[in-house]
Amino acid sequence: ITNAAGGLNPDFSPGDIMAISDHLNLTGSNPLVGPNDDDLGDRFPDMSRVYTPDLAAAAHAAAGRSHLTLRTGVYAGLLGPSLETPAEIRYLRRIGADAVGLSSVHEAIVGVHAGMRVLALSIITNTHDPDHPAPASVEDIIAVANGAAPILENLIRRILEQINESEKS
Q1: What CA–CA distance (Å, rounded) separates 66 from 51?
Q2: Quick check: helix, strand or coil at residue 67?
Q3: pLDDT tens, residue by residue, 32-83
Q4: H/E stretch holding 6
Q5: Cβ neighbours, 10 Å, residue 99
Q6: Residue 78 class from Cβ within 10 Å (0-12 exposed, 13-18 middle, 19+ buried)?
Q7: Which long-range contacts (CB under 8 A, 24 or more apart) does 30-37 make?
Q8: DSSP state letter for 51
Q9: In the chain, where does DSSP find H-type helix?
């Protein structure tokens, strides 16, 4: 899973890439609500390890080989489509979020439900300082995401190489 996310961790900068270690589903919904098809997955899937540790390790190894700093953090998923207020940013930081976005949480939940191994990577497109709020435009966010996309693409290629090497040995 890939996404664009706002950085909440003060150590993050626009253009950084973060491996999601866990998430906060603050969307107000869950994609598994409704009748369950047991052929697709358990009614109540365990969410204690949404993001597969060996895939995260492969991502970090691949980043190291690429001389890329891969951040790690907790992703807060919000409903959107509005961006966050300074009070929401303070709250998200307090509850442990390192980045915030409007996607990926539902995809990860469905992946776990289906028994998939999940790796999620966020491009940090902007950073939030609730004490000095600055306007964020979707155009600027998209520009940063587009600028970092080739780096993310290279990282994903290296992750796949790392996984293939691990499977061979």
Answers
A1: 22
A2: coil
A3: 999 999 999 999 999 999 999 999 999 999 999 999 999 999 999 999 999 9
A4: strand 2-7
A5: 29
A6: buried
A7: 30/106, 30/109, 31/106, 31/109, 31/110, 31/113, 32/109, 32/110, 32/113
A8: S
A9: 53-65, 86-94, 105-113, 138-168
Supply the DSSP symbol for 27. S
Separation between Cα atoms, residue 126 and residue 145, nearest integer Å = 9
What 3-state DSSP class applies to 72?
Answer: strand
With helix as H, strand as E and coil as C, how does 90-125 read? HHHHHCCCCEEECCCHHHHHHHHHCCCCCCCEEEEE
User: Which value, in Å, is the radius of gyration of the alpha carbons in the chain?
Assistant: 16
Q: How many residues belong to the chain? A: 169
Q: Which two tokens stand for residue 40?
A: 């697709």
Provide the percentage of residues in the chain whose pLDDT is more than 70. Answer: 100
Phi, psi for 5 (deg, rounded to 5): -140, 150
Of the chain, the end-to-end C-alpha distance in Å amounts to 26
**Global pTM?**
0.95
The amino acid present at 120, given as its one-letter code, is: A
